[in-house]
Design goal:
The protein is of the alpha/beta class and 239 residues long. The protein is built from seven helices and six strands. Strands 3-4-2-1-5-6 form a six-stranded parallel sheet, with helices on both faces. Helix 2 packs across helix 7 and helix 3 runs parallel beside helix 4. The radius of gyration is 18 Å and the shape is globular. The protein starts with 8 loop residues before the first strand and ends in a 14-residue tail after the last helix. The structure holds farnesyl diphosphate. Farnesyl diphosphate binds next to helix 1, helix 2, strand 2 and helix 3.
Amino acid sequence: MTRAKTPAHVAIIMDGNGRWAQNRGRPRTFGHQRGVERVREIVRACPDLGVSTLTLFAFSSENWKRPGYEVSVLMQLFRRYIVREVDELDSMDVRVRFIGNRARLPRDLQRLMGQMEERTAQNARLTLQIAVSYGSRDEITQAVQSLAQQAADGQIAAQDIDEEAISGALFSGGLPDPDLVIRTSGEMRISNFLLWQIAYAEFTFVEECWPDFSPELFAQVLASYGTRERRFGKISAQL
Ligand code: FPP
């Protein structure tokens, strides 16, 4: 029987920062600050746990509807994360990529993101993909538009638009699909996250809010993934 072993690509919906803080009588933004600390720890834990790609859902296209103050604190946390972490991530051989609609982000943040990507582009130990201003339907829409444009320009034939072409045209093009999706805080939703890419992924929903998602808990979730059998539509005997 083929066991799933270690997931090469883990995608995480980091949910529950606001509730975690409010349960402690603190403002929601305090939860986001703690959330950044967890991001640092989980990223550092990945290489030793055998994870080679980590995708983090940091800010959705729907999150723009939150109060202006919370949005601006989150933008500031992203800026600070990049400025403070870039040297260490580079020295840890981590390649950072951002996916999402960048045009909506503040100009200086777009610039910092581009610089971080450029600086770490040649790194290979871990790929850290951060989804900011990201929505999966938005991503699929722009991929379809770009392929349709190529067809209209005569660069490709309509029949060339197969699954591989669509995967390649997504923001995440070139990366393997996630093997495991984790969502914290007990919510069981996908929230417009990597809809195309998670077709065959396994799912784990944990009760803990993101600020309580420790590297130990992460290791436990990965160990339990290792006991599952992934069949990709086949039956056990065929694997
Ligand atoms: C969900 O909790 C979390 C977010 C919308 C923001 C996630 C951001 C971070 C963890 C910090 C920054 C990340 C990086 C990569 C530097 P919520 O606010 O929806 O919580 P709630 O469901 O309790 O309201």
